[in-house]
């Protein structure tokens, strides 16, 4: 038995199959009814919204699509590097890269899904203008220009891919991320400078103090706001803390929805600090900077890998200040890289959704 198999063996199978799975579901429904709760309707599942960007959001979506078919990704639109940055500068469009990655993560494990996942992630390699452009970026932008509607175009791409969920941009306009960074210039380690652009912020050698977006009051995509308000669970993170996670809290209408929703909220922490952006950050410090950017936002659960938390008491105290409980679970791959294992992360999310209650029977 491999290490990964042993870790999974300690957790309940995420998607029970056949008669045994139905029996387990009916037994859980009976226990809920006996406790005074409403039983889960057969076939019902939680309505989940995941917020983030980049590879962190992709990891979360790859896990969540294993436990619910009612899944919406709300994706940051501040990327200004690589293929996305070039398309944004040349055409004035939303950066499509993080949206493409989210769609790829929602592709199924069958031949159709895996083929399309590879196709939209494929990058051209040449000595010309197409070099390093991703096929999916070009497809998304082409549909935006054809249809004139961000949401309709992304829904159409999702239908083509057979995506297990919906992908939405968090804002209808491209955003510029700006950060106050101490020591961005190594020759002036005590100075605080304004650093502009997501790509630059993510790689700064200095210490990020805070971030904001330009424009300062960007319009949220109405469908994203509606999804948050209508959710059973909202998942924030993992991902680049200042450039993928916190930006969602800087869109006023989206922050209001996160504050007002009756959905329960889980924050998924990274497996390791990110070089540059959060270098030297403890798990609790991640919570502290998030709280400073959105002091009115309350959480329900903070999920962390048990091996990535050297000081559990400090993390518990930081989580309490946000109204949250801490759940520790093995969610990392066993190859030594700081990446989430989709099945382990899915098992952790599923356990949290069951153990921490819900606002009503799954829709």
How would you explain this protein's 3D organization?
By secondary structure, the chain is of the alpha/beta class. The protein has 15 helices and ten strands. The chain has helices at 3-9, 18-34, 54-64, 82-91, 97-105, 111-121, 135-147, 150-161, 198-202, 222-229, 241-245, 252-260, 283-293, 312-321, 342-355, and strands at residues 47-52, 70-75, 166-169, 176-182, 192-196, 207-214, 233-236, 264-268, 301-305, 325-329. The longest helix has 17 residues, at 18-34. The model is unreliable at 11-43 and 359-363 (pLDDT under 50).
Task: Write a brief caption for the model.
The chain has 363 residues and is of the alpha/beta class. 42% of the residues lie in helices and 15% in strands. Helix 14 links the parallel strand 9 and strand 10.
Given the C-alpha coordinates, what overall shape results?
globular
Instruction: Let me know the average pLDDT.
Output: 86
Proportion of helical residues? 40-55%
Q: What is the terminal separation in angstroms?
A: 38 Å
Task: Spell out the helices and strands N to C.
Answer: HHEHEHHHHHEEEHEHEHHEHEHEH
Count of individual beta strands: 10
Strand proportion, as a percent range, falls in 15-25%
Largest sheet: 7 strands, parallel
Strand order of the largest sheet: 3-2-1-7-8-9-10
Low-confidence region ranges: 11-43, 359-363
- Structural class of the helices, strands and pairings? alpha/beta
List keywords for this structure.
10 strands, disordered C terminus, alpha/beta, 363 residues, single chain
């Amino acid at each position: 038995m491999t290490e990964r198999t042993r870790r999974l063996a300690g957790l309940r199978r995420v998607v029970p199959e056949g008669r045994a799975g139905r029996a387990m579901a009916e037994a859980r429904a009976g226990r809920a009814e006996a406790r005074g709760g409403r039983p889960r309707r057969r076939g019902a599942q939680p309505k989940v919204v995941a917020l983030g960007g980049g590879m962190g959001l992709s990891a979360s979506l790859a896990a969540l699509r294993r436990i619910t078919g009612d899944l919406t990704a709300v994706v940051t639109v501040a990327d200004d590097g690589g293929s996305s940055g070039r398309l944004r500068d040349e055409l004035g469009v939303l950066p499509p890269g993080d949206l493409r990655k989210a769609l790829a993560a929602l592709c199924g494990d069958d031949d159709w899904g895996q083929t399309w996942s590879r196709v939209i992630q494929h990058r051209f390699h040449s000595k010309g203008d197409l070099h390093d452009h991703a096929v999916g970026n070009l497809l998304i932008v082409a549909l935006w220009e054809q249809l004139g509607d961000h949401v309709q175009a992304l829904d159409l791409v999702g239908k083509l891919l057979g995506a297990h969920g919906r992908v939405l941009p968090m804002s209808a306009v491209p955003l510029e991320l700006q950060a106050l960074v101490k020591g961005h210039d190594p020759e002036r380690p005590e100075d605080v400078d304004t650093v502009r652009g997501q790509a630059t912020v993510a790689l700064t050698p200095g210490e990020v103090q805070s971030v904001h977006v330009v424009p300062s009051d960007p319009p949220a995509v109405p469908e994203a706001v509606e999804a948050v308000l209508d959710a059973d669970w909202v998942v924030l993170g993992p991902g680049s803390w200042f450039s993928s996670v916190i930006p969602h809290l800087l869109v006023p209408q989206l922050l209001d929805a996160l504050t007002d929703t009756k959905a329960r909220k889980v924050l998924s922490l990274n497996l390791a600090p990110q070089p540059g952006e959060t270098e030297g950050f403890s798990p609790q410090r991640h919570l502290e900077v998030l709280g400073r950017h959105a002091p009115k936002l309350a959480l329900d659960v903070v999920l962390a890998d048990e091996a990535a938390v050297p000081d559990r008491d400090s993390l518990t105290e930081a989580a309490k200040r946000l109204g949250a409980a801490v759940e520790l679970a093995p969610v990392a791959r066993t190859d030594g890289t700081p990446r989430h294992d989709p099945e382990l992360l899915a098992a952790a999310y599923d356990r949290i959704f069951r153990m921490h209650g819900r606002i009503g029977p799954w829709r």
